[in-house]
Amino acid sequence: MKKLWLKIGLSFFILFFIVMVIVGFFSGELMKSVYLHMKESQLQDDAKILLTTTKLEDVDLDQDADKIQSDLKPLEDKIDARITVIDRTGHVVADTKEDPHSLGSHMDRPEVQEVLKQGKEVGIATRKSSTLGYSMLYVAVPITHNGVTDGVLRISISLESVEKAVHQLWLSLTLIFGLALVFIGFISAVIARRITRPVNEIIDVSMDLANNRYYSRITGKTSGELQDLSLSVNQLAQSLEKQMQEIELNQQRLSGIVQNLVSGVMLIDQRKLIVMTNPMIEQIIGEKDLTGKAYYEVLKSFALTQLVDQCLEQKVFQQEEITIYFPRELILDANVSPILSKTGNITGVILLLHDITEIRRLENVRSEFVANVSHELKTPVTALKGFAETLLDGAMYDEALLKKFLTIIKEESDRLHRLIMDILELSRIEQKHVSMNLEQVDVEDVVITTMDTVRSMALEKGIQLVPPNLTSPVIIQAERDRLQQILINLISNAIVYTPQDGTVSVGVTENEANDTIAITVTDNGIGIPVKDIDRIFERFYRVDRARSRHSGGTGLGLSIVKHIVESCGGQIQVESIEGSGTTFTVTLPK
């Protein structure tokens, strides 16, 4: 494509060229006409002077022909023109170039006819001479005698000189016009460049804006309307740049919000293709690179697909709690919102998936907890009420029965107290309201102190308590009471579920690689069935409900232990073989 300045410059040049050709043509023709007119006037004056000097009006043209020829003959070399004398019949009387006797009648010559027949004072004609062979200019004037036209005096000159002069004129005009065209072409190019430079810059800036290069500006100096246009384009570019920065910032914010939402987001267009997703929905669905795929190929749940279809068809918000089973079982709160245009047509939908699996699980745990607490509280309260009513009905007057019932009431009250305290303790631990007062603790010393605390319980069943065999003290940063609470629960459980004359041993090992210690509590008791191992840390869960209740346990001990260990940054594991024994391993950071 040609450049704009070249188009404008070429247009100017062509316009000037056409104008100058027309002007030159008319100027040349005008100057040629003026030149010929001047020659005609000159020849007319020369003829009139010649009439006077040769006194042709005083002689008889036919009788004095030889005299006239002899008088004109000397003028041949003096005057650069042909002189011819013609009588009224058209006969040539004298001629300075040719023998008059050899010339025929000249009555048919236009200039002669204008004088002799039309009576004009001058006759003028231009033609090619039949005798001389080149173009001539003829001027004829009448020769009068006593008021009567007796003949014609004709003077003619060659137009070769005129044509040479005109040709020279044309050469001069062509040279002048050529130089003028070169100058005009240069000026046109300069002016065109000056005019189009800001236009080209405006075009370049406009193209930059169209290609998202909003920093581009017009820097050239302009004036008039172009200056106003440049300012308008710069203001437009500045406004676009500011708006795009705001749009990009908003997009970044929106993208950051969507990408970090704990809910899955999927944008689906009217063609049922996925336009946008966030990492959470990819995690829920178990598939990546979803953009461009059809939603019904990605969503592996018929209920979820049907919910989106209903939103697309009905153009109204849809909400439902849906359970999916692939890639894993989840309970989802699915919300599908239509995106409508101003005309009411649906342009897409937004699918929001909230994973409420944990919420539902916690609700179930809460329900079970309330049921279990109610059940656990009901037993001692029922016993207290029953024995109290029995005593009030008259049994209190039997001293032995009174003592027995009061003992049972005290035991049930103690059990109720332990249950309430464990519930409060577990609640404080779960809500992280328990402050840790860390100190340097000798683990072996805490183990031995704990064993002394539960030794009477072990002696009743003849169970041997085996302390750790350490060659050097093991010191950790911990809270002594919390560590002792962990050990009391684990060792007490081991004693409860170990038969008579069994063994409960505690081991302590250091791991220098990851700077931790491991405390193990091992017994050779009844063990834990495989089906129950994953649930033993749940609140109120008991493997042997009758035996644990008889032992006075609340069912919260292991749950408390797990929460304390995790609050200390550690972890607890269990290994058990039914009928052979159980080992609990507590790993704590040093």
UniProtKB/TrEMBL annotation:
Coiled coil regions, renumbered to chain? 226-257
Q: Give the EC number.
A: 2.7.13.3
Q: How does it sit in the membrane?
A: Multi-pass membrane protein
Where is each HAMP domain found? Answer: 193-245
Catalytic activity reads: ATP + protein L-histidine = ADP + protein N-phospho-L-histidine
Identify which top EC class this enzyme belongs to: transferase
- Name the residues that span the membrane: 6-28, 169-192
GO MF terms here are:
ATP binding; phosphoprotein phosphatase activity; phosphorelay sensor kinase activity
Q: Which InterPro entries match?
A: BphY/WalK/GraS-like, HAMP_dom, HATPase_C_sf, HATPase_dom, His_kinase_dom, HisK_dim/P_dom, HisK_dim/P_sf, PAS
- Give the principal location in a single coarse category: membrane
NCBIfam families membership: PnpS, sensory_box
Protein name per the record: histidine kinase
- Give the organism's phylogenetic lineage: Bacteria, Bacillati, Bacillota, Bacilli, Bacillales
